[in-house]
Amino acid sequence: MNEVVKLERRDVIAIVTVNSPPVNALSAAVRGGIFDCIKSAIADPEVQAIVLTCAGRTFIAGADITEFGKPPKPPGLAEVLVVMENSPKPIIAAIHGTALGGGLEVALACHFRVATKDARLGLPEVKLGLLPGAGGTQRLPRAVGPELAVKMIVGGDPISAADALKHGLIEEVVEGPASGGESFARKVLAEKRPLRKLRDDDSKLAAARADRSIFTNAVAALTKKARGLEAPFAAADAVGAAIDLPFDEGLKKEREGFLKLVASDQSKAQRYAFFSEREAAKVAGVPEGTKPRNVERVAIIGAGTMGGGIAMSFANAGIPVTLIETGEEQLKRGMGVMQKNYEATAARGGIPADAPAKRMGLITGKVGLENVRDADLIIEAVFETMAIKKEVFEALDKFAKPGAVLASNTSYLNIEEIAKVPKRPQDVLVMHFVAPANVLKLCEIVRADKTAPDALTTAVAVARKIAKVPAVVGVCDGFVGNRMLAQRGKQAEKLLFEGALPQQVDAVVTKFGMPMGPFAMGDLAGLDIGWRSRKDRGIKSEIADALCEAGRFGQKTGKGYYKYEAGSRAALPDPEVEKLIDETLQRLGRKKRVVSDDEILERMMYPMINEGARILEENIAARPSDIDVIWLYGYGWPVYRGGPMFYADQVGLKHIADRLSYYAKETNDPSLEPSPLLKRLAAEGKTFASLAQSAKAA
Predict the structure, then answer these.
(1) pTM of the shown model
(2) Which of the residues 97, 261, 469, 574 could staple to 563 if both were Cys, CB 3.0 to 4.6 A apart?
(3) Catalytic entry in 105, 171, 380, 444
(4) Active site residue 125
(5) Is 578 a residue of the active site?
(6) Which of 646, 650, 644 is nearest to 610 (CA)?
């Protein structure tokens, strides 16, 4: 047999063990090894039952994603599963760790399944823009019923061993996988249990066949948030085929759906996002073998929206955190907001009923910066002004223990300036979370000139530990996300001076797949913040200033670019705003014109892409995919469009460069001229992806 799958006999039981670290993925070698070992065990007259198990930390955790997009190597997974399912001898899948995707499909082709108590079982293909392609959509509904199957396949989230037992996905919870599988196999032989082939067992489909609303209601609940995505609906159709069609026809329908999705732009974008996230965790310029510092205690300074959200992120991951404020009143307010947020999530069923108390129990509120003394990592989330930040870092130098990582949550300010304050610049960096920090997954990590490699790896490791996606970037105004966003904001404002209305611009941006348009976002954040900042810098923005002068600060005052009914966050177009814009344009002697949706889309997206090219030119981001990760996980870019740089490659860089040149002339805005990098790639017919290999870290 091959080296990644081995067969051994324990008298009448054959144990087939997959050993292909790190996650026993279903590579061609693993598929071939299972195929050969199972056939060999079936042919052996001494063998009466077969146990399929895995070495290492997990059962088969899915397909080998490095094979995606390459010519298939035999044997195909479906071929392996047919041999298993048709075995005249019972086959038991003994699961530990995770059985995901193709791994669970392998287990479903076995006659029985057992799992250790910490095992998790799921079909998450939908998260890669796919559906299970080896019978998962046909066998799982027969194992657990269509309602739970829809939840697992369309939602993509795994279930625990306890739930799997309750719903009949596994027969037993066992101590160890191999020993548990073997003793269960002996039980099957002793009791002469008939082999259960899921393909032939329609008993759990009967209720949904009699009342299809059981299935359609489950689908409706799960696809509510799937705006713009193709895979959840295709996956639901495939599960529907299990209810409506005989097994082999359902299998055919599943295959058609899988092949259509695997070739789609959406799935390519989602798979790209998956790889990009992993790539972003690789930090260039860090010596090999650099270990992160030990982080057991964390302190957050500032209990406002950001500080509270960051504290919740740590508590959500089960990590105790000290939340520090300057006064009792501010601390009490911050703790109250977090409590309320947790209770609202529990009321919606987002977290268990006992979670708010447990998580709040991990957050200790303290007054005074001296309370950072024990912390291994300190994150400040105070007001976004350089003077206050410097004051905090001066105090941290006094109170923080040696070797503590000192992180700022600034979203714009120059960390080089801040790092000059303490006598330990090697410990200073930025961990930029995006509001709401307890929801959005991005952690933009900015390394300063003197940041120590182990401080950097600590920030990356901690971000991952609290389920954030880290992306390491260099120092510039606004870093990557906000620097690009500023270009979009500039164009959004200009479009109002040319004849577009806030609701038209926002509609184009949300139709593209963003959760909010720039004007609704401004209302949510509060228009007075930008107004004050402009006044400080002596800058005018006639329309936005006029809104603020009329007391329209956004959602908090019930009116901004839109109006808001009492207690509602729904943005309603307001004729008053239209009138105010018209009056401003007349006063300035500007003529309105009809602005097309196509122009709005190009002017919202292309200047951001152009800024992304400048960021790459300046080595602020190491890879185009790092920029995409920042936008996917921090700024609401739709995953099915892969990120701004991926999207640019799909559209074509020559087209983007040409349109930018056109708008630069039409709107008399030289900042829209394509950057040298964009120009060069467009002229050479290349893509941003072509830079990925040669890109060097900041």
Answers:
(1) 0.91
(2) 574
(3) 105
(4) yes
(5) no
(6) 644
